[in-house]
Amino acid sequence: MSPIHRRRPALAAAAMAVVLTVTAGACGPADEETDTGAKPAASAREDGDNADFDDLGLPRKLPDVLKDFDPEKWKNGEWKNWDKDRWLREAKDFVNPVIEGLWKPERMKEAEDNTKTVSTNAGTDRGATDPEPAPVDAEPVKTPYHKHAAPVGKVFMDTPQGSMVCSGTVVKDPRNPGRSNLVATAGHCVHAGQEGGWFRNIAFVPAYNDKGRSSADVDTAPYHEVAPYGVYWATWAQTTDYWISEGTRSGGGGAQEDFAVLYVRPEQKTGKSLEETVGAALEINFDAPQMARISGVSNYGYPAAPPYDGVLMYTCTDRPGRLTIDPSAPAMYRIGCTMTGGSSGGSWLIEGADGEPEIVSVTSIGSRPASWLAGPFLGPNAKGVFDAISKKFAGRS
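Below the sequence we write its predicted structure tokens.
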């Protein structure tokens, strides 16, 4: 495998790097160690069911708790009802109706970072943990983003705490080659873990704020600059059973399997897949080399917690070390990086054997104050999540 050394993998036409970040509002990093478990279990249905979805992206068979579901009431604000009896929690019960026009540019900008943090000394006496890395200042990604980091974008969601943001990346789908509609992000960007259920109004905007305008200028920027490829709603989401049962908003709970994949559809039908529209998608490596053999990792994302404001894409590059929260699971990747909440879910890239960037992790947790980020090792459980959603929508574009 070709080492990255001091250069970043190119994120242009066919490949791209993404930022590491974990949060539940404006997905940001959390200070803690995490590992993926060894059993290849996925939290969402793995039956390959290709049940049809209606025009709103709703499955034909709704969960029992939504037997009285009224799409019009939902679009008019009923989705704000976070009563626990109507907050879908089980993996099989994901529902995310499309509400056309909900994610307007001004609402996107107001969404806050979804951050998951841990104490800076967490896990230092447990398992395989290397010395805390020196901070690496995040650097702005070159604009326009569609030429330098097209597969990277922002993930928006509504939570009981309000509208929040994370980062995500368009990934290749082996069952839909060249026509993928899959987006990789963090589990805490789509599900509240042990504290709740699935978030609502989950959507992905690739190459958000394409020209890198300032926060003030985004308010008046043309829509095609804010969302150059449009808004993509999650028809389905998968995360790990471990995140659903163990995930916490703060601390390292669930971080070792803090991974999710979305199947998305455009708010405005185009007849093309997400990959065809964006022109790029990245491979996920579920069998990455040991950290000692990786000379450099680059991540990309949209940090939204101060001193950042969520409108610009940033990147960090550093040699990864190990961070352990749960000794029974593989150590997490950790690098020095000053990105904050909002970067959660952003992908971590290394140079693959073919010289192309490939994803080995997504941002899950980070320190406060921001000096490092950590992401899970994507092993059998993460692959189970990915395969389940890929099989579910095999042959569909």
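The two ends are 33 Å apart (CA to CA).
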